[in-house]
Amino acid sequence: MGIIDTPLFKIVLGLVVFYIGLKLFAGGMKSLGNVKQLEPFVTNPYWMFLGGILCTLAWQSSSLSTTAIVGMVASGFLPLPAAIAAILGANIGTTGTIWLASFFVSDGFPIGPTRQIALMHTGANLLMGVCLLPWVHHIARFIQRF
What we know:
The protein is mainly α. It has helices spanning 7-30, 39-42, 45-59, 62-74, 80-93, 95-106, 113-132, 136-143. 75% of the residues lie in helices and 0% in strands.
C-alpha cells in the first residue's frame, strides 16, 4: 500500500484542494468590486435576508453562502449589516436540506418524527432570523468594535 492510498494522505489532499478552491472563490468575489446595478439590493438587509435564503436553497450549502458573503464583505462590496442579514437567511435556507431529505425518507410528504424534526429545525432558524433581522444594524455596530 503506497502513501497515496492512505487515509491521511487523502484527508490532507482534500483539505489542500478545498483551501485552494476557497482562495479562488474569494478572489472571484473580490473582483466584483463595485457593481452599481446591485447596490439597491446589497445595501438593503431585508433583500439580503431573502437572497441568503434563496441562494442557500439553490445550492444546498450554507457554507458556500457564508464563504461568498465573507468574500463580498472583505472586498468592500457588501456592508456588514447586509452580510449579517444574508447569513441569517442562509441559516433558514439550510433547512431546505432537511426537508429534501425528509421527502426521500418518507416517500412523499414527511410524516411522524421526520416531519417533527424538519418543522423544529425550520421553526427554530426562522424564529431566530425574524427576531434578529430588525437588529442587524446594532449587531453590526457591536461587531465593528472588535
